[in-house]
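User: hey, got a sec? need NAD(P)H-dependent oxidoreductase folded
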Amino acid sequence: MKLLGISGTIVGSKTAIAVHQVLEAVRRDNPDIETQLLDLKQYDVQFCDGRDPAAYTGDTRKVIDIVAEADFYMIGTPIFQSSLTGVLKNLFDLVPVNALYNKVMGFVATGGTYQHYLVVENQLKPIAGYFRAFVAPSYVYLHDDHFNPDKQIADEDVLRRIDRLAEEVVFMQRKLKS
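Assistant: Yep! Here you go:
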């Protein structure tokens, strides 16, 4: 089984740190699960223009293939202007619907206000529903205050919630695929 963590931004580092933390929790308790972090800032992904996903080339094709080949996902986004990033939305537009069908998704989000956690409920979960993906009941929202000056997650409650989210996505994946 392959868990793909997606950092859905091309700026900053806190989202990738949060996604990586979930992947680490999965690896710690489930050494049989392969994990990979897809950090979108490392790729030059084209804007979706409506063509068949198979027609894209270069980094765009590579990213589409990486997403399609995964068995389940941990998706992260910073919250900008009370919404997910355009980079992540573009990825969702590029990926064929059947690539995410019946796959498990977990979400982490980072932001500067405590109200931005609602983006997971109001935007990310409906997108997962469109893809007919299974969504972990928990998600983790990290405020800037949850990180120390070295950009490490310092809040113990957040770290516990990350562990719980890691357990949930693995549990769901194993049950759905058994």
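Quick note: The domain at 2-177 is CATH 3.40.50.360 (Rossmann fold). Let me know if you need anything else on NAD(P)H-dependent oxidoreductase.
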